[in-house]
Amino acid sequence: MLIAGVDCSSKNIAITLMTPEKLIKQNYYLESNLKDMDLRLNELVIKFENLLIYSLPEKISFLAIENPVYLSNPKASSGIAQVIGYIKSTAARNSVDFIGVDNRVWKKSVLGNGAADKEMIIKFAKSNWGEKLIWNQDLADSSLVALWMVMRTVNK
């Protein structure tokens, strides 16, 4: 069984593949630096779909994706929501079960604090999996989203 945790922005997708034993099997960081939002989103979606269909070491059993966080920038918020929608659609088309999760929910469940800040998240992730696997904030988030899903599905 392989569980994926996903964290998105309008410029990247961070994906953590985790085993039921809470070990990170692989991290992926998909980026697009295109300036045009539509072209950038299209590039990210194609990268995600290619990863999901052709490049993963084994099929994902469950995919947990952080729900959109609405920012003061409506264009960025819209972009994030679109990327998340595309990821969910791609998962559904490829028979991968998925669930969206509010960031306050996974933070409360995993860290005991629904308002945990970036420092708390990255410190927890690096202390559990090391700096080689957690080299940025997005991967820290995706690893904790994956851990939340493991706790929810495997360790009931």
Cross-sheet strand order for the largest sheet: 3-2-1-4-5
Structural class: alpha/beta
Span between termini: 15 Å
CATH homologous superfamily (4th level) name: Ribonuclease H-like superfamily/Ribonuclease H
CATH top level is Alpha Beta
Tell me the number of strands.
5
Q: How much of the residues is beta strand, in percent? A: 15-25%
CATH topology title: Nucleotidyltransferase, domain 5
Shape: globular
Structure explained in plain terms:
This protein has helices at 37-55, 74-93, 103-111, 118-129, 137-153; strands at residues 3-8, 12-18, 24-31, 62-66, 97-101. Strand 2 (12-18) and strand 3 form a beta hairpin. The model has no long low-confidence stretch (mean pLDDT 93). It has a 5-stranded mixed beta sheet with strand order 3-2-1-4-5. With 156 residues, it is an alpha/beta fold. Helices cover 49% and strands 20% of the residues. The chain contains 5 helices and 5 strands. It has a single domain (3-153), classed as Nucleotidyltransferase, domain 5, CATH 3.30.420.10.
Based on the model shown, name its key terms.
156 residues; Nucleotidyltransferase, domain 5; 5-stranded mixed β-sheet; 5 helices; 49% helix; 20% strand; globular
List the helices and strands and how they pair.
Layout: E1 3-8, E2 12-18, E3 24-31, H1 37-55, E4 62-66, H2 74-93, E5 97-101, H3 103-111, H4 118-129, H5 137-153
Parallel strand pairs: 1-4, 4-5
Antiparallel strand pairs: 1-2, 2-3
